Amino acid sequence: MRAFTYERPDTIAAASQAASQPDAAFIAGGTNLLDLMKVEVERPTHLVDVSRLPLRNVSETPDGGLHIGALVSNTDVAADSRVRQHYPVLAQALVNGASAQLRNQATTAGNLLQRTRCPYFYDVAMPCNKRKPGSGCSALQGFNRMHAILGASEDCIAVHPSDMAVAMAALHAEIEVHTPSGIDRKLPMSELHRLPGQTPDRDTSLAPGELITAVILPPPPAGRQVYRKVRDRASYAFALVSVAAILDVGDGKVRGARIALGGVAHKPWHPEDAEQELVGAAAQAESFEAAGQAAVKGAAGRRDNEFKIPLAQRLVARTLADLALAKGG
Ligand code: SF4
C-alpha cells in the first residue's frame, strides 16, 4: 500500500472541500476501498474520513417516504422496521449482499460507490480501461462469465456489483449530494451510475468532492415487492442476474410494475419498455413472459455469459408471476 495523508473533518462542508483536491478519496466503512488500496488499484494520496459525520439516521419524510443517512450501515437499513414493512425489496436485497460482517461495516453511500469485481480490474498486471484508461479490456477476450449483457461498450463490459442499488433503482430513490461549493443537490438514482462508453474509469456522475449525504425513498409504491438473486453460491456471492420487482395487480390486470436488473450492466438496469408493456395487461403468464423478453431487449452476450440472457428473461417472468400469485401485501 502506498503512503497517504489522512484527516477526519468535523463537518460535511469541510469533508467535501477536503476531498475536492486531486487524488483525494472519501473513506467510511472502507470495505472495498482498503482492498483496492492494498493491491494498488486505488492510490489516493489523501483520505478524508467521513465515518463520524452526523449521517447515521433513518427518518420519515413529510410525504411518507424515508430519508436514509449515507452512513447508516447496510445491517441497520435492512433491520429498520419501516424498511422491512414498506420497502421489503430493499431489505431483501441488502441481506442478499456480502456477509453479515461486511454488512455491519458497509455504509449506504459506500455500497452505492463500491467498484466492479471484474477480476482484471483487480489485477494490475492485466490491461484494464477502468483502472488505466487506454490500456485495453482484458475481459473482452478473457473470462467474462460474470460480465455485462446490456449497455456495455467495446471499452468495458464490467457490471456494477451492488444488490442494494438495484432495489433502490426499482424504488425510484433519489440521491442527496453535498457539493464542494456548499450547495446541496439531488439526483435520481438512475443518474448516479454511468454506462461505460469510452470512459469506463468513471463509475458515477459525481464530481470530485461531491459527498453523498443520504438516499431518499419516495412513499412506498402500491403492490407487492420482491428481490430475487441468482448466484453461484447460496451466500456471499455476487449476482449472475438479480431482479427487484414491484407489481400492483387488481381485477386481473396489472396496474403498475417496476423492474430493475442487477448483474447485467455497468449500472442497475431499468427496462422501462418492459414496465410500460405490463401496465394494463392481463396478470397472466403470457404478459410476464413478454415482459421478460422486453427486459433483455438489446442484450448481447460474450463467450462465457450468453446464458445470462435467457436467465434474466426467465427470472423476470417467473418473479412477476410469483408476485401476481402471492397472498397478502
Ligand atoms: Fe477493466 Fe472493464 Fe474490461 Fe473489466 S470489463 S477488464 S473493468 S475495462
Tell me about this structure.
- This protein has twelve helices and eleven strands.
- Helix 10 runs antiparallel to helix 11 and helix 11 (285-295) runs antiparallel to helix 12 (308-325).
- The strands form three sheets. Strands 4-5-8-6-7 form a five-stranded antiparallel β-sheet.
- 28% of the residues lie in helices and 19% in strands.
- The chain is an alpha+beta fold and 329 residues long.
- It binds iron/sulfur cluster.
- Residues 116, 118, 120-121, 128-130, 137-139, 156-158, 200 line the site of iron/sulfur cluster (SF4).
Biggest sheet: strand arrangement:
4-5-8-6-7
User: How much is the average pLDDT?
Assistant: 97
Overall 3D shape: globular
| Rg of Cα set | 20 Å
Largest sheet: 5 strands, antiparallel
Helices and strands: which structural class?
alpha+beta
How far apart the termini lie comes to: 50 Å
The stretches of 5 or more residues where confidence is low (pLDDT under 50) are: none
Q: How large is the count of helical segments?
A: 12
Task: Tell me what portion of residues adopts beta-strand conformation.
Answer: 15-25%
Ligand species: iron/sulfur cluster
What does the secondary structure layout of this molecule look like, with pairings?
Blueprint: E1 5-7, H1 12-18, E2 24-27, H2 33-38, E3 46-49, E4 58-60, E5 66-69, H3 74-79, H4 81-86, H5 88-95, H6 100-105, H7 108-113, H8 119-122, H9 164-170, E6 174-178, E7 184-188, E8 211-217, E9 224-230, E10 241-250, E11 253-262, H10 272-278, H11 285-295, H12 308-325
Parallel strand pairs: 1-3, 2-3
Antiparallel strand pairs: 4-5, 5-8, 6-7, 6-8, 9-10, 10-11
Helix pairs in contact: 5-9, 10-11, 11-12
